[in-house]
UniProtKB/TrEMBL annotation:
<feature type="signal peptide">
    <location>
        <begin position="1"/>
        <end position="22"/>
    </location>
</feature>
<dbReference type="Pfam" id="PF14559">
    <property type="entry name" value="TPR_19"/>
</dbReference>
<feature type="repeat" description="TPR">
    <location>
        <begin position="429"/>
        <end position="462"/>
    </location>
</feature>
<protein>
    <submittedName>
        <fullName>Tetratricopeptide repeat protein</fullName>
    </submittedName>
</protein>
<keyword id="KW-0732">Signal</keyword>
<dbReference type="Pfam" id="PF13432">
    <property type="entry name" value="TPR_16"/>
</dbReference>
<dbReference type="InterPro" id="IPR044624">
    <property type="entry name" value="Mbb1-like"/>
</dbReference>
<keyword id="KW-0802">TPR repeat</keyword>
<feature type="repeat" description="TPR">
    <location>
        <begin position="531"/>
        <end position="564"/>
    </location>
</feature>
<dbReference type="InterPro" id="IPR019734">
    <property type="entry name" value="TPR_rpt"/>
</dbReference>
<dbReference type="InterPro" id="IPR011990">
    <property type="entry name" value="TPR-like_helical_dom_sf"/>
</dbReference>
Amino acid sequence: MPFTVRRIACAAALLLGLQVHAEEAPPAPASSFTNSTMDAPLFYQLLIGELELNNGQAGVAFQVLLDAARRTGDEALFKRVVNIALQARAGDQALLAARAWGDTLPTSVEAQQTVVQLLALLNKPAEVPQPLRALLRLAPADQRPGFIASLPRLFQRAPDTKAVLAALAPVLQAQAGPLKPAALYAEARLALNAGENARALALTRELNQAMPDGDDAMQLAVDLMPVEPQAESLITERLAKKPDQHALRQAYARTLLKAQRPADAAREFRALTEATPENPAVWLALGALELELKQLPAAEAALRESLKRLDVPAAGTDAEIKARADGRQSAWLMLSQVAEQRGDLKAADAALQKVDGSGLDVRFRRASLLARQGKLADARKLLKPAADASDADARAALLAESQLLREQRDYAGSAAVLKAGTERFKDDTDLLYELAMMSEKLGRFDDMEAQLRRVIELKPDHHHAYNALGYSLADRNVRLPEARQLIEQALKLAPGESFIVDSLGWVEFRLGNLPEAARLLRQAHAGRPDAEIAAHLGEVLWLSGAQDEARRVFAEGLQREPDNEALRDVMKRLKVKP
């Protein structure tokens, strides 16, 4: 007997058994049951469908149960059929079932919602408008904004984001009244995903006007900042009117930090420490930023404030307890670094003793202390990966060792470590980039350019590589038009990043455009008062006749980094006394 016939025979026997059992059972009181609308053929059909599914015949089960769903108009059964198709990875069949569901039950909100979701899953944005309009027409009024706002998330992995925007924009633009803000948000988010940043910014501004107290426009503005700098004004205006929006300020500060604007980020975290002084996370973030800005007393003060709050025993989830422990580790590591930069190696070692574990970050700090004591060989041994280390750990150790040697100004040694790394990890853009920086330090400019161009070839959005090559050309006063082009490309990839703005200012200086150079370098210095940026700004100001301002810039730079070579060289050349 064929297997299929045998299964049907088993199903028939089961049906017969159920019927006999029903006949033998004593009659129930009339009030204890309700007649089912399911007749025997339908019951048999459902049973066969489930048996086919249990025996691995998903295609047969799909057809049998879909027919039953059409006959009964049962939403739960339609949902079951859609799930069967999805579990079998048959997206087109799931869509067919969902459309049948909508045709059979034309007032079903869930049917139209399922069709829209499946069209997104199957990357068919052009087919979305009709079911989306139906969904918005049928759904309760209070659910419609949520359906609209969820559209960008549904299509976030779509390969052709411009096609998604083109398909959905007409539906979104047709919304009015209470649905208008959600439609503006969705269209702005889709425009941002599609790279239409100016359009996204215009829609965000319109949304901010429509909902001046809402969060959606601010979320968009924060996400737009890296690609559309004008979005920042929306955030600063909101914070000026509503300084108590701490979550927005924290998101803004994190975005400034990602944009390599630590001075601006530190300003926002200082405001957060004043507004939420019991939050250890904002003190820890401020301490890290002050350390990066070489403001050692301020860094130490902020880090100790974070420890006061992290050291207080507190209940919480395992994740919260771990986060507090990690915060303490980070604070002590940075306090060790503060003491080391201050030249107090004993205090640096004492802080390091408070840190548990032997991770690479801890070993690097210990190695740095050894190197400062003249024990470079021991320091390097401390960073060597174990023989059975993974590729990721070995690569991280190589980068750490090269950084240690660079900090000791052993540029040839650092280059040798990185060269060995590139032979093991071929075409690793991080190793190649760092090797290029060492090649420049050693005066091997042809090697540096070849290495940076290889980085750009491998990773066309590597803005540091464009910037480094453009700056090197400008600093050597060669191929200045090409240098400007490279740096402008870097700035397109990372708008507002202070080091890139500094490079562009230096190109303008080399080209003789002193007013524009001064403007750009002031902007760069305000976002990151780095000693090398101070050297550039001070030189341009000095040659522009603003010598008092130049002296102030030089003095601030020396206060942060007294031993900075670039700063001392330019002051010596210009005969400016420290």
